[in-house]
């Protein structure tokens, strides 16, 4: 019976591998044409100030909708990174996001009224390209978006590997006024050993550190927030879904937050509505 069970496990494992390989092939084949087929879009989710709820930034989040229906970023981004397709796709996102932010500014809409910045997720594959910093500066130049309106989000695990070249590129971008945020902070390896030497401006606290209920144990949340405040880095709590969580994070000393409780990600046209709701114009 033990042998039989082992065989079952092996064949199940082989079946899973085959399915994963098929999914990889299907996604990478589809992604290859996503840009020219117009299947990509950028949605935006507000980042708000606590406790007022005033919007201070929007995060650009990539959406892919091929004819067969939407594919979540957690499924296609890893494939894009593995195949290198993240290079053209990431370049497309960056330009789209800067263009949208600039267009809103020209329309005297949310950007200009509120001095809002746009934050763009960048993969390590992009960052490792020797021309990356030049590419970002060129996009700012051609879209006319000021450098201080752009934040690049980099996943914490980037700093765990052999990343000697990264600080050079990051320093160069920061020298121009572009800010760098560490995404999913607390989930990687850099939290303790590297934080003091990372060239970063903002920490985004991963939503796994946001307690589900006010009554629970907050020691980890507090520890992560304190790591940031020890370097005077502003922290953004991700994945805030309830008013209780917003209050709790504020009570623990967090000044910025993002999550479905405030606004879900939506197309650029919806951002204006989110602003109207969250940043009401002063009376009179
Ligand atoms: P992320 O950068 O940490 O983005 C936050 C994710 O949390 C987004 O998922 C957002 O929709 C989701 N989220 C926001 N508020 C809540 C909430 O209250 N509850 C819950 N449960 N989730 C919330 P999304 O859009 O599916 O993106 C997933 C990940 O894909 C992103 O995580 C980011 O790492 C990656 N990604 C998205 N767009 C891009 C891109 O343009 N380039 C790169 N390199 N990665 C991207
Ligand atoms: Mg992000
Ligand atoms: Mg991320
Ligand atoms: Mg995150």
From TrEMBL:
Tell me where in this chain the EAL domain is found.
Answer: 24-279
- Signal sequence interval, chain numbering: none
Domain of life, per UniProt, equals Bacteria
Name the chain's protein.
Diguanylate cyclase/phosphodiesterase
Q: Which organism is it from?
A: Dactylosporangium salmoneum
**Entire protein: shown range:** 520 to 803 of 803
């Amino acid at each position: 019976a033990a042998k039989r069970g082992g065989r079952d496990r092996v064949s199940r494992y082989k079946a899973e591998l085959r399915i994963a390989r098929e999914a990889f092939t299907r996604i990478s084949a589809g992604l290859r044409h996503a840009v020219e087929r117009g299947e990509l879009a950028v949605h935006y989710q507000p980042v708000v100030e606590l406790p007022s709820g005033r919007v201070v930034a929007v995060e650009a989040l990539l959406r892919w909708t091929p004819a067969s229906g939407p594919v979540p970023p957690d499924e296609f981004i890893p494939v894009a990174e593995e195949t290198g397709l993240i290079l053209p796709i990431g370049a497309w996102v960056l330009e789209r996001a800067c263009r949208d932010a600039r267009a809103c500014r020209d329309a005297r809409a949310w950007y200009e009224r509120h001095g809002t910045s746009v934050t763009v997720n960048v993969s390590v594959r992009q960052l490792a390209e020797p021309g990356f910093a030049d590419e970002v500066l060129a996009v700012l130049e051609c879209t006319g978006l000021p450098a201080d309106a752009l934040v690049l989000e980099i996943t914490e695990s980037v700093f765990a590997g052999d990343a000697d070249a990264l600080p050079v590129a990051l320093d160069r971008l920061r020298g121009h006024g572009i800010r760098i945020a560490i995404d999913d902070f607390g989930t990687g390896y850099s939290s303790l050993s590297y934080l003091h030497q990372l060239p970063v401006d903002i920490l985004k606290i991963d939503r796994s550190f946001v307690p589900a209920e006010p009554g629970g144990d907050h020691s980890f949340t507090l520890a992560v927030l304190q790591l940031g405040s020890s370097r005077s880095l502003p922290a953004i709590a991700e994945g805030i879904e309830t008013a209780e969580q917003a209050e709790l994070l504020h009570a623990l000393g967090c000044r910025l937050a993002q999550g479905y409780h405030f606004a879900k990600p939506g197309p650029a046209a919806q951002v204006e509505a989110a602003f109207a709701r969250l940043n009401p114009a002063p009376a009179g």
